[in-house]
Amino acid sequence: MARLLLRGFDIRKGYLDGAAQTQLIDVLRPILKSAPLFHPTTPSGKQMSVRMTSAGGLGWVSDKAGYRYQDTHPKGAAWPAIPDVILQMWKDLCSPDRDPDCCLINYYGEGARMGLHQDKDEADFSWPVLSVSLGDDALFRIGNTTRSGKTESIWLNSGDVVIMGGPARLAYHGIDRIRFGSSRLLPKGGRINLTLRVAT
Ligand code: SIN
Ligand code: MN
Question: What pTM was estimated for this model as a whole?
């Protein structure tokens, strides 16, 4: 496992081996069944190309009313619990003292991307955000704490983990594109990104 520090982003290449990646997909399957992926829209009404859902006490949603965490899926049901194997990664890499409220699940199909943004809907930025990449390769762009200035990009592969804490916690970041079909982890291709967040 190689460790890379890029502008405070703590990148663990190959943190999860193939068996661990498959185990995560297996525990995600029932979650996606009970809390189906949906296409969020931005507050300005544009549909995002990524599909999303969440596990945990709170899930992240976006629609015309704005970006926020809420305790139910847009269809009304409570979110499923965050599986123990995922909580264990948070305990090992971030903190044994407090569990995350939210495991946001982003699915990138062919052509999906995510524009540069900050994660700032949480109440306390002293907690890191833990990101787990599964499936197709993705070009991750890292910027600054303001929208301007030079950016750097790095390919994230299946099994890579990124800890966004400290100076990286409020840095702009996004996914320019994925290499659809580059991984065989997901039977239909695409990429799943999990982000674990303390929201309250
Ligand atoms: C995110 O910023 O919420 C997702 C980043 C990623 O897909 O790697
Ligand atoms: Mn983000």
Answer: 0.97
Domain that holds residue 8: 2-197
User: Could you identify the residue written with the tokens 């999906």?
Assistant: 112
Q: Ligand 1 pocket: which of 105, 121, 172, 175 to mutate (most atoms <8 Å of CB)?
A: 175
* Ligand nearest to the Cα of 174, by number: 1
- pLDDT digit string, tens, across residues 90-138: 999 999 999 999 999 999 999 999 999 999 999 999 999 999 999 999 9
Q: How far is CA 116 from CA 41, 105, 175, 185, in A?
A: 16, 18, 7, 26
User: Distance (Å, rounded) from C-alpha 60 to C-alpha 93?
Assistant: 22
**Of all protein residues, whose CA lies closest to atom 5 belonging to ligand 1?**
174
Per the structure, how many domains does the chain have?
Answer: 1
Task: Please name which ligand lies nearest the alpha carbon of 119.
Answer: 2
